[in-house]
Amino acid sequence: MIPSVLPTYSRADLAFVRGEGAYLIAEDGTRYLDFGAGIAVNALGHAHPKLVAALSEQASRLWHTSNLYRVPGQERLARRLVEATFADTVFFGNSGVEAIECALKMARRFHYARGEGERFRTITFEGAFHGRTLAAIAAGGQPKYLEGFGPKVEGFDQVPFGDLRAVDAAVAQTSAAILIEPIQGEGGLCPATPEFLRALRRLCDERGLLLIFDEVQTGVGRTGKLFAYEWSGVEPDIMAIAKGIGGGFPIGACLATERAASGMTVGSHASTFGGNPLAMAVGNAVLDVVLAPEFLPRVERVANFARQQLAALPSEYPHIFEDVRGQGLMLGLKIKVPNTAFIDELRERKLLAVAAGGNVVRLLPPLIVEEDHVREALRILGEAAAAFPARATEPEAA
Questions:
Q1: Which of 134, 136, 343, 364 is the most buried (most CB within 10 A)?
Q2: Which residues make beta-bridge pairs with 252?
């Protein structure tokens, strides 16, 4: 008999009832150090007092009105995101994949409004992950997500990640945009080099394409800057964000320049729940914390400490760890045993982590972690590695 909850998840038999900062507390009272952060969502940890206060105060006044009316919190959050980024305008949804859908529609609409409706195709990259809607799985192009859902949505051309010649060769008269994650998250913590991103910017400018960044996972301080594009100095035309901007509350947003958004007119896109007062109260509270002058420099310091500590693992446990990758507090360990089995071992030892492609273990702690949390995680990583002696099984990449 099918369970009442549709069985599309492979869940651990573990339920949490409370959270405190970097820790989750299970039903039996056991504490777990959370280096998964709800898959890079809980940017400020669990039960952050500022977020709790913002949500509670807004919940006591007004929950929802729809976008038939002005939403003052939406206007404030949009203005703050515009002031802090390349963007001129923002559309609010409820998730990362909604932000991606908006970005793809915006790019197509941009060319349509210019009398170039034939330009609708988007160049994407092998190993990418952009969400689970039909368009998003087509954009990602991974067979395991496409299987069983009929013909792949038309309009996406995958090329090898980091291969500029392949990108250039893929550009055609029907090309509208290039979509890329500055760091591939699900794909195994693979960063695009600044040189590659700069080359994509030049190519888009020369060939009349829009450049779209998927910063759903890398955004809102995860890499040590507010957004990862800042490391390269390359500004996109459109950017999708989610995860961290809500600190655990569902928010997605599509940021764009005035030029890129020029085709989006009244009725061209909408969301019933997007940008509702509850979400906007939380999003503004997240920015209050993340944009404070001392916050991101502290994230960078802790991230550098974490990277330095993790760098010793491959030499200490060469039968387990291959290398350390990623940026800021978006870190990955490429390992030699199945990553799912290693994550199970970590969980047994009360450390939570997340699997990624390429047999990588993702470490995505909340941005409020301290060096002591990193030391605790390092100790558990070492203990888990010691539990895998010379039984070097072939990895089964997640």
A1: 364
A2: 93
* Among 169, 239, 238, 181, residue whose Cα is nearest residue 207: 169
The identity of residue 110, as a single letter, is: F
Instruction: Judge contact between 205 and 149, C-beta under 8 A.
Output: no
Tokens 């109260």, residue?
A: 281
| DSSP E strands, 219-290 | 238-241, 252-256
Residue range 95-146, pLDDT digits in tens? 999 999 999 999 999 999 999 999 999 999 999 999 999 999 999 999 999 9
Give the integer Cα–Cα distance in Å for 231 and 219: 12
Rounded to whole angstroms, how far apart are CA atoms 373 and 306? 10
Domains annotated on the chain, with CATH: 50-290 (3.40.640.10), 294-330+346-360+378-389 (no CATH)
Q: Which two tokens stand for residue 292?
A: 């404070």
Q: Compute CA 281 distance to the chain's CA centroid, rounded to the nearest angstrom.
A: 21
How far is the CA of 4 from the CAs of 8, 10, 132, 331, 398, in angstroms? Answer: 12, 15, 21, 35, 26
Residues 6+ apart with CB under 8 A from 195: none
